[in-house]
Amino acid sequence: MKEDTFRTRQDNARDAKQKLLERFRTIANDPGLEQRRAERAAVTAAREERAAAKAAEQRRIAEAKAAEEARIAAEKAAEEKRIADEKAAEEARLEAERLAARPKIIAASKYALAASAIAGMNMPRDRNQQRKAS
Fold first, then answer.
1. Which superkingdom, per the lineage (predicted)?
2. Which of 50, 48, 28, 47 is nearest to 37 (CA)?
3. How far is CA 95 from CA 30, 89, 98, 100, in A?
4. Pair 118, 109: CB distance under 8 Å
């Protein structure tokens, strides 16, 4: 049996560190490592490009939607204004007709009043006589 001394443990630890360092050096000097890094960078760049294109498309769609909503709102406002103008014109026309017919109504009511007055003149004055006549 071997004796584990402090010195042998130090040597073993140093050898393990050297092997580990050599392993990392071989990995770092691997020609495929640079190729894999370049491929990952290309994939990342493509992903970022797709994300930027998607964001631009969403922005374009949002702008188109906002423009369409603005167009619809303008059309709705124009339609409401047209309806209000038509309603105001119709009310003005009806008011004008009413005002134009007013002298006729007044004249007709004067004639009706005059006719009832004339009819009242022809009626008997006494109510008792009126009952007898009926």
1. Bacteria
2. 28
3. 97, 10, 5, 8
4. no
